[in-house]
Fold this sequence. Notes:
Layout: H1 2-22, E1 26-28, H2 31-55, H3 57-62, H4 67-82, E2 86-88, H5 92-113
Antiparallel strand pairs: 1-2
Helix pairs in contact: 1-2, 1-5, 2-4, 4-5
Amino acid sequence: MSSLLVRWLINAVALLLTAALLGDKFQIDGTASALLAAAFLGIINAIIRPVLIVLTLPINILTLGLFTFVINAFMLILVAHVLTGVTLTGGFLWAVIVALILSVISSLISTVLGR
């Protein structure tokens, strides 16, 4: 249970850092919105993402896994549409960029914490 909580907090911090880095293209209203967005993103990544990965497996193999960033961008767009505290502007390309930056920041934080 504690590792789930730590992962949730890591993702919330990564969302806040990504929003601070990108400014007007990706915004989060505050810590509560980041925690809610991280929880919602975790839930849809656990439920919807595996289905999308299986459905897009041929194109994911052809792109050597890079299509996963497109799926992650779709998940971020879904979070931004559902939650009022998360704003993603600039279109689909910026969603892919946000997904890439979010992955890098989350990985760096996890590495530093040893998780």
